[in-house]
Amino acid sequence: MTEMGERLVERAREAGGIRPDANASDLFALISAAAWLREQVSEEQAERLLSIMLDGLQPTR
After folding, report:
1. 37 closest CA partner among 28, 46, 47
2. For 26-31, what is the mean pLDDT?
3. What is the DSSP letter of 59?
4. Is 61 helix (H, G, I), strand (E, B) or coil?
5. 1: which of 11, 22, 27, 38 is 20 to 30 A away, CA to CA?
6. Which pTM does this prediction carry?
7. Burial of 44 (0-12, 13-18, 19+ CB in 10 A)
8. Which intervals hold domain Transcriptional regulator SbtR-like C-terminal (predicted)?
9. Among 20, 25, 19, which Cα is nearest to 6's?
10. What angle do CA 19, 24, 27 make, to 5 degrees?
11. 57: left (phi over 0), alpha (psi -120 to 50) or beta
C-alpha cells in the first residue's frame, strides 16, 4: 500500500497537484487524522477541518 501511495503522490506532484514536499506517509497520516476527527467533532467542523487539510496539500503558486 505504501508503494502505491508513493506512486500516487509522485504522479500528483509531477502534475502539479500536490506540494513538492508531501509524501505518502503524510497522506496516510492525514487520512487517519480525518477519520479520527470525524468521530470526535460535528460534521460541520469535520468538513471544515478536512478542507483546511486539503488546502494545505496544494502547491503554492
Report:
1. 46
2. 92
3. P
4. coil
5. 38
6. 0.75
7. exposed
8. 1-59
9. 25
10. 70
11. alpha
Distance of CA 18 to the CA centre of its chain: 9
Yes or no: say if 53 and 30 are a contact pair by the CB < 8 Å rule.
yes
The CA-to-CA distance between both ends of the chain, in Å, stands at 30
The per-residue DSSP string of 9-35 comes to HHHHHHTT-S-TT--HHHHHHHHHHHH
Instruction: State residue 36's pLDDT score.
Output: 92
- How far is C-alpha 61 from the chain's CA centre? 18
